[in-house]
Amino acid sequence: MEKILAKKARINNQSTFYSIKDLEKLTGIKAHTLRIWEKRYNVIDPDRTDTNIRRYDDESLKKILLISTLNNQGVKISKLADLSLPELRAKVNQSLSPDSSMTMFIDQLVVAMVEMDEQAFSQQLKDLINWFGFEKALTEVFFPFCEKIGIMWLINKIHPAHEHFISNMIRQKLFSEIDSLPVPSGKEVKKVILFLRENELHDIGLLFYHYMFRKAGHHTIFLGQNLPMEDLEKVTQFHNADILVSAMVAKISPRNTQLWIDNLSETFPNKKIVLSGQHLNEVDPVYPDNVRHVNTAAELSDLIQSGEL
Q1: Residues 273-309: pLDDT tens digits?
Q2: Residue 112 belongs to what domain range?
Q3: I need a labelling partner for 239 at 20 to 30 A (CA). Which of 25, 52, 193, 248 fits?
């Protein structure tokens, strides 16, 4: 009876629910497997709607992620089903090491985000950077983690508070790493301006590009979010920049996307322009000759190292 009352209280206080398909997308575990875990081992006990459709809460998501992590290490479901969340979390923390799969780290970041546990999230970031270095930690763990967060946005399962919590912590790390690098100078040093167009606010990926260009010995000028075109023109002229870098995450129509790209190309015909962002992959615009589209940080790194940028 106490478990039933606790479950009802949790459900009444819970504003976010997941369908079994949502859980499949977020955990990578097939819906069929989740049903088996539920029926055979009672791993999770979902609520049901009036039409008898399963719905799962944050506690279910966290438990599945933790169990999946341990199960992938060879621990049997039957040994994990009755463990509480704190017990599961303790076992996962004991098992994490530099030899663990990147998926394990990604899933633990999701758990820390859902719980808004700043200490756990910060410690995991610190461990990742110590074990793998800053760039590998971001490209192989944090960016895939952000893709998972993007899925949660698409299915409306993440609150703005979660995004602010995550983005502010990562932004602090990025600025700290960037500030530790020297500002290059000299006639041969390329000048790079990084900016986001008006109404574009997602700057974490751009901050990482800022770090990459600065580490490669370029003089970077980070102008940040929501920059009007006339301001970009003034700064570019003042600094005589060589390369302009931007990203598009916020959705606008394909037509307006193309118009913005064409306007950027025509306004700065003698500059190299680099664009990235998931929105561009979705609308697939035509890129003028002086505009280069990059899909990944690795692709950008190759262009920088080759001297093309």
Answers
A1: 999 988 898 899 999 999 999 988 888 988 998 989 9
A2: 11-177
A3: 248
| Tokens 């756990």 found at | 120
Domain annotation covers residue 129: yes
Which pTM does this prediction carry? 0.70
In a shared domain, residues 105 and 232: no
Residue keyed to tokens 């009007």: 228
Closest CA to 271 of 291, 246, 252: 291
Looking up tokens 């770090």 gives 211
Residue 135's CATH number:
1.10.1660.10
pLDDT in tens, 98-114: 888 888 888 888 888 88
Split at pLDDT 50, 70, 90, the class of 151 is low
Q: Which residues contact 96 (CB under 8 A, 6 or more apart)?
A: 104, 105, 108, 127
14: Cβ contacts below 8 Å, ≥ 6 apart: 57, 58
> CA angle, 82 as apex, 81 and 88 as ends, to 5°?
80
Q: In this structure, are strands 291-293 and 272-276 parallel, antiparallel, or unpaired?
A: parallel
Task: Give CA angle at 266 (265, 271), nearest 5°.
Answer: 55
What pLDDT digit, counting tens, does each position of 184-197 carry?
A: 888 889 999 999 99
